[in-house]
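Predict the 3D structure for this chain.
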Amino acid sequence: MRCRSVIAVIGLGLGVSVPAWADPRDDARRHFAAGLEAVAQTHYDVAISEFLAAQASYPLPQTLYNIGRSYADAGDFPNALKYFKQFREADPAHVAFIDPIIADFEQRVAASSAPVASAEPAPSGPGIVTAEDATRFDEIINQLRSLTDSLDQKRHELASSTPAPAPTNPAPGATVTPQPAGSIGGDASADFLQDAYRRVVVTASRVGQDPLDSPSTVTIITADDIRDSGALDVPDLLRRVVGVEVMASSGGHSDVSIRALGRKMNNTVLFLLDGRPLYMEATGWMFWTRVQIELEEIERIEVIRGPGSAVYGADAVTGVVNIITKTPGDGPSVITGTTGTTDIRRVAAVASGRVGTTGYRMSAGYQQQGAFSKEAEFGSPDTSPVRSPLIDPNLGMEAIRMNARADKSFGDKGAISLSGGLSESTEEFISLGTLQNEVWQFRTRYARGDGFVGPVHIRSSWTNDNGKLGNALQYVGERGVDANYVTDVVDTEVEVPEKIVTGPVTHQFDIGAGWRFDTTRMTWLKGGFNQLYSESRYSVFANEQATVGRLSAVGSLRVDRHPLIDISHTISPRLAILWRLFEKTSLRLTTGTAFRNPGYGETDFGLRIPTPSDGIYVQGVPNHDLLPERIVTYELGIHDESSYYHRVDVVAFHNTISNLIYTADVPPVIQAYNGDANGYPVGIDPFTNLDYVLNQYGVEADLELYPIDGLDLFANGSASRDFASDSTTNWIDKSTGELKFNVGGTYRSPFRTDFSLWLNWISAETWPLRDIDPSTLSIVVTDAPLPARTLLEARVAARPFKNQPIELALTGWNLTELFGDGYREHPQGQLVPARVYGTASWQF
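Done. Predicted structure below.
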């Protein structure tokens, strides 16, 4: 139906209005559903009350429309017209849909307010209209109007009997304009918008779908979740997601792992920004300071737990995190400032607006975070370590960012989206192998364009990184690892989603192809900075979801062409079977594979790595025979949201991971003196495929509760165990916590004050550390235990002025260490302290 096509587009996040300050979406969803139930019983006064409560909790244009529709069916045309006009103002992208309705009701209001004929007898005779004639004419007009409405309804029923084309999945910001509509007369329930507050995910299959129909396990972090959390960056948000572990090794860097495959500089999770990969090209590592957007620009974050290569290709080994930004022109402009302990400073400004069918959004921000702890004291230059000139000794990270985006739709023919941004940042991190504290200084720019013509979506982006890196901490006379680098990446994809109905089967297709070209110069690579490395990679992918009644089957296949890897290692299939046990309960069985390509930093590593012994170094060497890391997974899950008071997700999984890439052991043989390097190489240190296999078994449970208006509660947890085995030995890998859980909630009080509390707990870990023994100059592996750790956060936010959208918040993070020294999240990492910071936000 006409209106359902409108809501399908809006539900994909293309028409969201100004959100409320707190997170009342689930309260609004409950009131909205009660309003629809009242409509079905023709209790329009109750429906109006419920829809108004939903709009007060979480404003959306769809709710304004339903309020107007309820007033119309109750016979209150002036109020109906009022809310239809508010719907138009809140969602100008759909004027073609609402303008004919407004015109119709303007005529109705005008007719109902026309002067009433005098009750006094009027003269009669030829050519004179009496009161009785006027009454008769009114009856005829009403009969004609009733007949016209009936014909409209018949025409509407006939049109709805033909399957409507499926809404496409435009990239962020694209707007699909519905066909013009006429009067809304006819059956009351037919024209009500049904799904205003439903959740939609796009990352699992690249097309918008209900989480109940997703072939992968999905967690959604909404814009309201982000604000209520008080988080300062995306990794802190991800700590709350079931099965996710965040490792903050310094005040400037955090690594994110999914399903117990954690490691320093983790590169097994694919991070996307509106579908664009964010990882560092030469290494596959993720540095968050390079990302140009502000938290206030994010509409939602979709976390896919489990392999994603069948949809996104390389690097989506254990999961995908897709950051989806708000549609330009939707939502308010905002200014935010934060300051607190550990030298926290953050300022962000986002301006958003719309001119006709063009929406725009611009942002700028500055952020810094002090070093969590100093690993050495600084005194005499002859006996004490010195810090890198790239970063202040007290600073963990610093970043300045700018971003802009504009979207324009062209009726129902297509749309275009253009965006670009730049950032300059410095970040301290704990590196791999025998490398330790390093500092990377970035200058990052990107430009992106998206075009839509019918169902066809074309995306192309260019990303440039350049800067330098080196030791964060070294002693006087110690060999350094300073380096320069520059990378350029061009990434282009074309994608076509389509929906076809064949008898009782509904087919949702998504097919596409991609080309990625990159060039890299880096001092750490063989040949040094003067040698240019370049690669062209190609991909084709297809996804189909076939549905018959309550049963769906999803088949996905992607093939990537990499110049150094045989194509047999880059074929990624996925198969999922979904069964709707009940209307809002689904059972899912999924199996699939994923892989990670080795980067230049692994295939062409050529760095001379310093050791604790002066004049002794380890020589990195290239290895073009590396195989991609690979995972095979099986999942069984159940997702239930059968009431408006809860949401439950339970998953059991088994992963087999092979060909893990890490630095090899160094042969303990001192070689001849190298005059160019002014030292003796102790051996070679290539990256290699480890010869053991990991088998992971785990279970995850996620529960959300909304017992009363204003109260949201959540609890989630995971348990897993990694069994490692090679040709001779079996052991249990405990380098990530086997048990993890989160519990927390938010209370939105009636006094414009919100309270949030969250606790995160991770069980003890034991990390195998590789280092060089100064006495023997050989690699030694030692087990480094980490005790269980608890992170407690509390936040209170107040809006002191009733009619002013200003919020003041105070957040305490890691409060269990408020009077302690902190804890480590990696044995070689810095101590993670408590933080207390205040935030002021103003929407306008």
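The longest strand covers residues 483-502.
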